[in-house]
Amino acid sequence: xxxxxxxxxxxxxxxxxxxxxxGLLAGCTAGGHGGPDIDRLLGGPxxxxxxxxxxxxxxxTAVRPQERLRVRVSDGxxxxxxxxxxxxxxxxxxxxxxxADGLGWEPDGDRLALAAKYTVDAVALDSEGRRSxxxxxxxxxxxxxxxxxxxTPENRATVGIGMIVSLSFNREITDRAAVxxxxxxxxxxxxxxxxxxxxKDRLDFRxxxxxxxxxxxxxxxxxxxxxxxxxxxxxxxxTFTFTVGRGQVSLVDAARxxxxxxxxxxxxxxxxxxxxxxxxxxYNGKMVVMEMLEVTRMxxxxxxxxxxxxxxxxxxxxxxxxxxxFLHGNYWSPEAPGSVNVSHGCVGLRDxxxxxxxxxxxxxxxxxxxxxxxxxxxxxxxxVAPDNGLGGWNMAWKEWKTGSAVK
Length: 407
Fold this sequence. Notes:
Helix content: 10-25%
Structural class: mainly beta
Distance between the termini: 35 Å
Radius of gyration: 31 Å
Strand content: 35-45%
Shape: elongated
């Protein structure tokens, strides 16, 4: 890019020199002197002043991104066109091409950038052999409102096989198709990845089945200048990656009060658990570890209950849903795991106050990753909603694909 910009600057300097001479010579012509010498320098009589037409016009401001950048001549041919876009204190050449008939120049891209200055330099030769040059600038619309997408997982993270790429937008998106087209998720080794919208402010991506361990996933956010809603444009233009680690899926049987932990298909351990009590049961279904906390406070009022509990130091806590379902250490009901369900919907493993590394909860925490799958069965509750946390694995693939805005 540095070399390309250097060439663009050298080309711009050369064109500027041509334009300077054109301006000086035009001034001489206006004074009635040096006509034959001017003709000889320019390759013939001077062409009309408006021989080269640039749109948007010179000096235009607040040009909208959907307007078309064009350079045209009525006859003859364009010899050279150089366009430079300046944005955020950086210059970049705008790639484009002269049309087959030689009468026009068009950019290779479809849209203008927002909050940018465009400089156009063009040289043309008309049908009578007269050469002319044109220098034109315009600036594009500077939006007052922007939107961004908050992305899960983090850049360069190593995650479990159940990770779903999730974008939560800070504003409602009304042109969901435009935003969806601007986001690209790819994998190596390749696998089909499809998007699904949950409402107007969340876009998730997943393959049909859990990721294969070792997969490298790349997320390209081309949201900059994309109009997600009337007058609201995207801000981000970035790429990030994450790696899928070993495959771990844990099966919680709420009726048996036990959890089987499997790594790459092999049983690692069977761990006693306590699930939701009869009046506050645990969701069934596939849930994904969203975050891991060595210790956290849990207050029943923050998840829709009364004042039943407020525990300031819950150890080894792993969030499974947005609504407050956790898998965590339990030191206050040491006899419950393996025998009775006593929680308010979470899954509890035996632990000690302060969190012990040699307890079932500590053992499991140390062997877990964000993105690991925890599936609950045989609970007297409904299946967790696909948009509650990263619960999209509970939706059939056919239904998942219908959630795309691009038809």
